[in-house]
Specification:
This protein is α+β, with helices and mostly antiparallel strands. It folds into 2 domains: 104 residues, Homeodomain-like (Arc Repressor Mutant, subunit A, Orthogonal Bundle); 154 residues, Alpha-Beta Barrel (Multidrug-efflux Transporter 1 Regulator Bmrr, Chain A). The chain has 10 helices and 8 strands.
Length: 290
């Protein structure tokens, strides 16, 4: 079964459980992914997070019941896993721009959110990105020292982390390569958390060292074990980085025959990186695979 079929199976699972309480962990198990990687793959292929997709589908089905039945609003809210009529009303109003009661009184459907349909040809041809074949490498264990912080997809603080880290790089006396730095997205077991654009995860901005001693204040150390990676090269300014990641998660991973490993992924910056806005800039993206 390939990634495309796995996501289709997840969509089937969601449709069968719109009235049940299910976690991201249970949904990802249906797809045979870790929750961490499942969120990224699902969002790339479906266009929104699992939580957002399920919420919109539940609201869509609830809106039908409002028009087609005389059931109480509170009963409909609880049926579709909203904790209260108030929380249901807030979510409903955000999507439909009116309250459930007013929506029912109009007797007219305003909008309907159908089940997502994945397009195989779209997955194989991401607009604006030339097909890029990654290098498959096994990177030996290495050590890093740097600064760890929390960020999320919606409010990305990684640029600020680099801004704070750059002036302090000289404090790291055991640094190996003066022209290389890493931005490591630390893999974590999300568990029952409904991962979405506001879910916090750890980022480590760092440099490679040969040993862990004399670690500067407010910095941390970490050993990255030996791992196989698919290495993609992003070319150009950072504003089109999203296109490169879309290619990786929408096109290459689903059709590559590889599976993502439950390990850290990272970006490697060396002498080819000339700045965030430079069209001639390059850096590598390491995606753990198995």
């Amino acid at each position: 079964m390939d990634y495309f079929e796995m996501i289709q199976r997840v969509l089937d699972y969601i449709e069968m459980n719109l009235n049940d309480k299910v976690s991201l962990e249970r949904i990802s198990e249906a797809a045979c992914f870790s929750p961490y990687h499942f969120h990224r793959i699902f969002k790339a292929m479906a266009g929104e997070s699992v939580g957002e997709y399920m919420r919109r589908r539940r609201l869509s089905e609830a809106s039908k019941k409002l028009l087609e039945t005389s059931e109480r609003i509170i009963d409909i809210a609880l049926e579709f896993q909203f904790e209260s009529q108030e929380s249901f009303t807030r979510a409903f109003k955000k999507v439909f721009k009116t309250t459930p009661g007013r929506y029912r009184s109009t007797g007219r459907a305003l909008v309907e959110f159908e089940r997502a349909k994945l397009n195989v040809n779209f997955l194989k041809n991401v607009k604006g990105v030339k097909a890029m074949e990654p290098k498959i490498v096994v990177k030996k264990e290495f050590k890093v020292v740097g600064m760890r912080g929390q960020t999320c997809l919606k409010n990305n603080v990684i640029p600020k982390m680099w801004e704070n880290f750059f002036p302090r790089m000289g404090e790291i006396i055991n640094r190996i390569n003066k022209d290389t730095a890493y931005g490591i997205c630390e893999c974590s077991d999300i568990g029952e958390t409904q991962f979405n654009d506001e879910t916090l995860f750890n980022e480590l901005v760092c440099v490679e060292v040969d040993r862990f001693d004399a670690i500067p204040k407010a910095m941390v150390c970490k050993t990255i074990p030996e791992q196989k990676y698919a290495v993609f090269t992003h070319r150009g300014p950072l504003y089109n980085l999203r296109q490169t990641y879309d290619y990786i998660y929408k096109t290459w991973i689903p059709t590559s025959g590889y599976q993502m490993a439950f390990k850290d992924d990272f970006e490697l910056y060396d002498g080819r990186f000339k700045g965030i806005d430079d069209p001639g800039s390059e850096f590598d993206i390491y995606v753990p695979i198995k």
